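Quick note —
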Amino acid sequence: MRRRGVGYYLGQVAFAILVVLVFIYLVFPFFWAISSSLKTPNELFQTPLVYWPPVPQWKNYLTVFTAQPFARNLLNSLIVAGLTTLLSLLIGGTASYALGRIRFRGKRSVFYGILGVSMFPQIAILGGMFVLIRTLHFYNTWWGLILSYMVFTLPFTVWVLTSFVREIPRELEEAAFVDGATPIQSLTRVLLPVMAPGLVTAGLLAFIQAWNEFLFALTFTVDDKARTVPVAIALFSGASQYVLPWAQIMAASVIVTVPLIILVLIFQQRIVAGLTAGAVKG
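Predicted structure written out below.
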C-alpha cells in the first residue's frame, strides 16, 4: 500500500481551512441580517459590535407587518413570481422541444437570438418596456411586472431546457411515435416526466430572479397595489424620514430570504442535475 507523505496531509488541512473560510464568507452576511433583525436601535450601532443581542427583539418581525402593508407586498411577489415562472416553463418547454428535437432552417440563429436578448442590461430596455406597458394599460398591475420579468427569465429557461432535451435519448420518442403518439403527446407524456430536473432547475432559478427583481418593480409600480417586496423594503420608513428602521429592514430581508433557502435545499439535487445537463456527452 502506497504511503502518503506529509504534503498530502498538509494539502488536506489547507483545503479544509479554505472550505471553512468560504463557508463563513457566504453564511456570515445572512447571520448578521438575522442578528440585526433582533436588535434594538441602540444595539445596532453600539461599539464594540454586538454579534448576538442578549435579549432578542422578536417584535421587529411583528412591526414589519403592522407598520407597513408588507403582507400585501408578499402576496404581490408570490403571485408575480409564480405566474412568471409558470409562463416561462410553459413557453420555454415548448420552445426547447422545438429547438432540441425539430430540424428547421435558422434554428441556430433563433437559439442564439434568444440568448442574445438576455445579454442586454435591464436599464437598456427600460424605456421601451415602459412605453409598451403604458400602451397595454399594464402599468401598476401584476401583468406589467410579469411581462417585463419574462424578458430575462424566458431566455434562461429556454437555454436550460434545450440543453436538457438534447440529452434525452431519441429512442423514447421513437417508441412513442411507433405507438401512434403525436409530437405534443410525446412532449407531455414522454419527455416532460424525464425533464423533471431541468424543469425544477429552470423554474426555481426563474422564480428567484423574479422574486428578487428591483428595477422593473420600482419603475412599473406606483403604490402597494402591485408593489413587490424588494421595492417595499427599499421604501421602508421610520418615525423620521431621516432615520431608517434598520432592524425592521433586516427582519423583512430575512422573511423574504428564508423561503428561497428552503426551496434550494429541498431541490438541490435536481438543480445540480439540471445545470449539468449537456456538460458530458456519452
